[in-house]
């Protein structure tokens, strides 16, 4: 019989860390100051770990809607250029009548009131609006599309814009309405900026990503030849912070002891801890983190092809 996975909350981790330090007893509850300081330090610790490049569960997929001739794109923090790839598609079933704000769709039951949707216009661009009502086989929208919308165009719903990627692992180029992805290649910064012709249009074959502070900058080459092209992106999303006591940290349950011991180490400067206890905590924290990082590696293999030409 399978046992349910026990998920610990942020306050559970803080309690465990403070018990390891000898600050509180097992039967005592946290006071407000220790709780607030513990959760703040937990978030700071988790954020600092992002630069180490692990956490497989934060690897995510997104779709970037390309624009003809545009070679630079802002990603994240509501820049509204890329959405997570778990959206739903629904086709428009009749040409849109200007000024009607009524879109005929294949399945109006899958929409919700006030939902944000993206409507593909005839020029290939995506028009963002919200659902304001329903009819039989149709939806009402809040805004007038900026271009014509014909029958057969796609509507994207259940969309969510991505946060600023910590890094971009891989991208694939896709023409509109195909399932065929073309591999692309990552460039270093100098490779991109030393490219003399950045405005040539065609198939995107190379890219360079700079995370920046708020929105990341993604540069592509060549620039897209139409508004209907896409870039499918594999990226590392930021680790979610834990704003409330009862929130589950953005970690699998196997990381509980790793988080607790390392949080105790981070908090040790705030409390009086005997040197011998601190050394034991430090050693255990390092061992647990190394073990967790080993678990947090993607299984890969190396294939060697012998050279039979000699």
Give an account of the 3D structure.
Helices cover 22% and strands 25% of the residues. With 310 residues, it is of the alpha+beta class. The chain folds into three domains: 10-54 and 243-291, no CATH class; 59-77 and 164-236, no CATH class; 88-157, Beta Barrel (Thrombin, subunit H). The strands form four sheets. A six-stranded antiparallel β-sheet has the order 4-9-6-7-8-5, with no helix packed on it. Strands 3-1-17-10-11 form a five-stranded antiparallel β-sheet, with no helix packed on it. A four-stranded mixed β-sheet has the order 2-15-14-12. The longest helix is centred in the C-terminal third of the chain and has 21 residues, at 275-295. It starts with 9 loop residues before the first helix and ends in a 15-residue tail after the last helix.
Question: Rg, please?
Answer: 25 Å
- Structural class comes to alpha+beta
Number of helices: 5
What profile does the largest beta sheet have?
Answer: 6 strands, antiparallel
Helix share of residues? 10-25%
Query: Could you state the order of secondary-structure elements as H and E?
Result: HHEEEEEEEEEEEEHEEEEEHH
Number of strands: 17
């Amino acid at each position: 019989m399978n046992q349910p996975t026990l998920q610990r909350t942020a306050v559970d981790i803080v309690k465990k860390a403070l018990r390891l330090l000898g600050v509180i007893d097992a039967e005592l509850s946290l006071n407000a100051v220790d709780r607030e300081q513990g959760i703040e330090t937990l978030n700071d610790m988790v954020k600092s770990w992002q630069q180490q490049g692990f956490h497989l569960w934060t690897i995510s997929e997104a779709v970037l809607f390309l624009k003809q001739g545009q070679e630079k794109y802002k990603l994240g923090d509501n820049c509204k250029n890329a959405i997570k790839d778990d959206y739903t598609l629904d086709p428009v079933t009749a040409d849109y009548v200007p000024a009607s704000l009524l879109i005929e769709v294949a399945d109006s039951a899958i929409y919700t009131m006030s939902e944000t949707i993206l409507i593909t216009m005839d020029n290939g661009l995506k028009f963002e609006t919200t659902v304001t009502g329903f009819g039989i086989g149709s939806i009402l929208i809040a805004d007038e599309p900026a271009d014509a919308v014909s029958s057969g165009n796609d509507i994207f719903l259940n969309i969510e814009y991505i946060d600023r990627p910590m890094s971009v692992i891989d991208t694939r180029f896709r023409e509109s309405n195909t399932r065929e992805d073309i591999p692309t290649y990552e460039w270093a910064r100098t490779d991109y900026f030393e490219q003399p012709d950045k405005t040539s249009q065609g198939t995107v074959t190379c890219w360079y990503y700079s995370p920046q502070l708020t929105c990341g900058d993604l540069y592509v080459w060549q620039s897209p030849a139409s508004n209907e092209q896409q870039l499918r992106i594999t990226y590392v999303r930021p680790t979610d912070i834990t704003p409330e006591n009862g929130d589950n940290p953005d970690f699998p349950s196997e990381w509980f002891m790793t988080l607790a011991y390392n949080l105790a180490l981070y908090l040790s400067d705030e409390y009086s801890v005997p040197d011998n206890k601190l050394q034991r905590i430090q050693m255990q924290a390092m061992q647990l983190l190394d073990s967790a990082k080993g678990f947090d590696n993607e299984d890969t293999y190396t294939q060697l092809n012998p050279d039979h030409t000699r």
